[in-house]
Design goal:
This protein is mostly helical and 491 residues long. It has a domain at 1-153. It is 68% helix and 2% strand. It is built from 23 helices and two strands. It has helices at residues 2-8, 11-23, 30-41, 45-52, 55-66, 70-83, 87-94, 100-116, 120-134, 140-153, 158-171, 178-183, 222-230, 237-246, 250-262, 277-289, 296-310, 315-327, 331-343, 354-367, 371-382, 391-411, 422-483, and strands at 190-192, 196-200. Strands 1-2 form a two-stranded antiparallel ribbon.
Length: 491
Amino acid sequence: MYNLLLESGNAEDISWIEESLKNRNKYDKFVVRFGNLCNDLSKNYNNYNTFINSEELLKFKILAERDNEVTSLLNNLTYLHLRHRNYELALETFKQVDNRKDFQLTIFSILRHFEKEQKPDIIFNVLKNLKEQSNYRIHWSQILIYWRSVIKKYPHLGFELQKKFKKSLKRSKYHRFGFLSKMLLVNKQSSNGATLEIRYYPIVKYDNLEFDIKPLPAAPKLQNIESRLVAGILPNSELLRKSVKLTNDKSEFDRLVEIANQLQLRTSKYTAKVKNIKLNVEIFYKECSFGNKLSMKDFISEQLNIINDTKFVDDQDLCELFKVCVKSELYEESVSVLRLLDEYNVKIVGDQQILKFLSMFIKWCWINKDFKDLLTILEWLKNQTEFTTDKYFWSNLKNAASKNMSRIEREFCDISHLSLTEGQIIAMKEEKMYIEKVLPHVMSYYDHTLDNIKDKNLEKSDRIVDHSFRCFSQMIKWVDEDTETMFEGEW
C-alpha cells in the first residue's frame, strides 16, 4: 500500500501513511524500506543496474532473512527485474518463492506484465513450466489473460481465434466452462467503413471480467510527474505523451508542454537533442482541441525538417507521422514520409492499424496515377516480415486497383466531346499513350506482388492461429484435470 501511494504522488496521502507506519513502529520495517527503494529503482535503469551488482543487495538479503521477509524480498526483486525487462533474473528470483499465497500473487503479476507487453507465448511458457515442474494448478482466469494477450497482439485474427477457442471450450468436460464462451465473444466492428469495407476488429468484453483482474494503471497525471521531478526522477516522453492525451485542463496542458520543452523531449529543430514525434503529434492535436488554429501542413513540414537535419528517426515515430499525413489527406507529404520509411528500412511491429492508412495511400496512388510511389510502397511491403494481416486486406487492395484501372481506361476512352484546346488534346493523347504502355505492366506487377505477400501472410496467420489454438486447448485440458480433484465451490 505504501508503494502504491508513493507511485500516486499524492503528498497528503504519503504523509498520512508514513505517520501511520511510524505510530505503529512499522516505518523502519524491512518491507517498507526495501519496497520504497525498489519503487525508486524501477524508474531509473542505471540506478537499478548499479544496485543489483552491489553489496547493498547482499545486505538487504541478510536483513530479509533476519526479519523473516525473504518472500517480500523475492517478490519486490521479481517485479523490479520485470520492470527493466531483465527476464533471466526475474525468473531466477521467481523460482525461489515458496509461500503458496505469495506465489499466486507473483504469478498473477507476471502474467499481467506480459499481457501488457503483448507476449502470449511467454505467458503460456510460464504456465507450462509451472504445471510441468511444480504441478501448479492453472486457473481459468489465467487462461483469459493469455487469450486477451493474443487478441491484442493479433486483432485482425480475432474472429478466427475466437472460433478456434470455442472449439476447445466445447471439448471440456465441465459445463461450468460454458460461461467462458460468452466472455470470449469477439464482436465484429468495421475499422473504417469508407476505405476498408470488410475489415473487422474484435472488441473484448471486459465488462464481465470481475474476478480480481484489475485494469492496468492509468497514465501518470501532471501531479505524478511534478512529484517525480521534485525527487530528481525525469519522466520519459511516453509518460508525458499519455498525460497530454488524457488531460482536459488547459493550465495542466501548458505545464506539461513546458516540462517537455525544459527536458528537450519535444521535437524542435532549433533546440532538440532528444526527439519524439509521437509526443509532438499529441501536443499538436491537444492544442487544436483547445481552439488554437494551427496548420497541419506546417507541422508535418517541421517534423520532416527535423528528421532530415538529425538523420535519425524512431520506427514508431515515422509510422505515426505517416498515419497523421494520410489521416489529414496530405498525400504529397505522405509520399515524403513513405520514402523515409523505405530509406530507414522501417519494420511494422505491433501496429496493425497502420494497414488502414497504407490502404488509403495505395488507393490514392491509383486515383492520381502515381505509379512510381505505388511501386515504392509495394517494395516496402515486400520487405515487411514482422506484421501479419488477413486475406481481406489484400483482396480489398486488388479490388480497388481493378476499379481504378477501369476508371482510367474510361477516362481516356473518348476525349472528342470535351471542350479542350488543341494543346490540351495533344497532352491528353500523350498521357493516354503513356498510360496504355505502362498500365498493363504496373497492374501485372501489382497483382503478382500482392499475391506473393498475401500467400506469405496467410501462411504466417494460419501458423499463429493453430499455435494459439494448441496452447489454449492445452490450458483448458489442464484446468479440466485439476477440476476433477477440487470442490465445485472453488471454481
